[in-house]
Amino acid sequence: MKLIGKLTLLFIIFSTFEIAALSSIYSPNKILRLDFQLFPDGTPAYTLSRKGTQVIKTSELGIFLREAVPLKNGFSIIKTDSVLVDSLWNPVWGEVKTIRDYHRELKITLLQKETERQIVLTFRLFDEGLGFRYEFPAQKNLSYFIVSDEHTQFNLGEDHSAFWIPGDYDSNEHMYSKTLLSKVDANIGASAGEISTKRIIGKNYVQSPLMLKSVNGLYINIFEAALTDYSAMHLEIDQQRFVLKTHLTPDAFGNKAYMQTPCKTPWRTVLVSDKAVDILASKMILNLNEPSKIENTEWITPMKYVGIWWEMHINKSTWNYADAGNIKLKGFDWNSLTPNGRHGATTANTKRYIDFAAKYGFGGVLIEGWNVGWEDWFGQWKEEVFDFVTPYPDFDVEELSKYAKSKNVKLIMHHETSASVTNYERRMDEAFAFMKKYDYPAVKTGYVGRIIPRGEWHDGQWMVQHYSRVAEKLAENKLMLNAHEPVRPTGLHRTYPNWLASEAARGNEFNAWSVGNPPDHETILPFTRLLGGPMDYTPGIFQIKLNHLDKNKIEQVHTTLVKQMALFVTMYSPLQMAADLPENYEKHLDAFQFIIDVAVDWDNTIYLEAEPGDYITVARKAKGTNNWFIGAITDENERQTTISLNFLDKDKTYTAVIYADAKDAHWEKNPMAYQITKQKVTFNDKLNLRLAPGGGCAISIVE
Prior knowledge:
By secondary structure, this protein is α+β, with helices and mostly antiparallel strands. The protein has a domain at 23-287: Beta-galactosidase, Chain A, domain 5, CATH 2.70.98. It is built from 13 helices and 36 strands.
């Protein structure tokens, strides 16, 4: 008995020592260190350091509950666990064939004495950054609760440079600003009136991911991962102390989230490196998401596609069949309408796109405006607009399904919900059955407008749950998803690999009918929006000046033609649209060859050089081949660069086709000037590249 007593005492002493010791952990390469502490009043806090220098200074953690004692202080540590994880996994598709998940995890179980409630703080420290979240075990004193606020801080302590967009609950489609944190003014963003649903919520709120560059040259990115059952995170800036705090999207009652234990929040993430390319190459966001919920993924097929889409944006044709308003959906005789003569989604026009896709090897054709309801859809805040199964009289869905199949081309469905999400949820089963009947393997969803249920926002918990429900239901039907106007992605394409792409940012379409996207826009997006997942940016516009149909039209794409080609490599997506009109490609078949050749699924990706807002150069190896593709882009400034080809196999000779800006090319003055050269290259070679202002370079390297 005495011996047992001594052993018990020894175990208690050891456990107490372990809790204290494990309040600090290092990343596997020892560069990053996480420190956890409790303040004297029991408030939890953390610090993140890199090579001994604090990147995130002491920052508080906590959750505020509606009409309950906040889960913010009064805590004591009752358990601490730590484990080193080192594993490999293969994504269904992606930038690389294999991903390494290598991190140190620290779990700290806290007990709030006053309420006898427990929370678990889980930290995962990778070589490139930190992820942490709140977990709520099943417990009698906390079974159901309402989150009124989340008190998660990111104490930067310095006035870093920031790439930011306003904290808008309803839209991500803003231009980025670059300022010091002290100069952030979220009331400036995209031009007023461009998107009717914009709601800028206050001076000091910005959206995540937030890309920062510190005064000593560190690249820091603050974001979230695995957003499935919670509101999207914005960031509130204290412009005197340079402390960021989470600001969650509310519902109509001001509540931020409704939770039932056991449950957990999304991961809060901090990426940090002294090299910008490390931010782009990081797979931490993916590693923090759950593995695929889809067992058989053979039907998931990345592809390039064309479609009836850009011609509506440049006003060559229309989505609507007739020029009539106030049309009722139910029981309306659409054959009684007089066609406007400019409808884009006709049987004949769709066949033209199918023929083009078949001729040049594209896998799919997107058709927008095929279904009834477009005459009276935008900004109406109406419950019922579209039914997703009734085509216009001039669109023969059965004939086109057979025609596409005969050409070995897939049709891509379009479901614009007009933000009436309750209507879409009621009709999803019928709409997806319709897709399967007519052999549509993928759908592009849209959520333009003010959300119904009224009082909800695009970034709120209810909509976050909806986007996941759509992905799950599509997976049950072996269908793929491309979501437009959703909440920004947070790595869920690992969990739902049928979720190939999303928009969730200011895409190429803005160049057709607005002030457009500035030349640096595409050099910022990979550091922000694309960290959460692939973007359907719709690159590949060859007719840069848009006055070819209307001499009075002043809009243009703010890049060179070659930069539009390079975007197929720098803006990653397994679902890439060659967005321009077929006739514009056939005027430049020599340049179009790169878009025909470039892959959409990769075995390897190497970010060669990058600086947010300035330039990006990336090389990718096509899946299952020894072929490489390089994309290089710059902002409004001309750029000279030299890249090494030392990633090629040492014992092989390749043919490189270089698509470059012409010497006099300029995004505004001479955007369509290009030159194409061909040369033999090996592992030992270096390529000298010149990128015109607003330009780029695209290179195919074939063994």
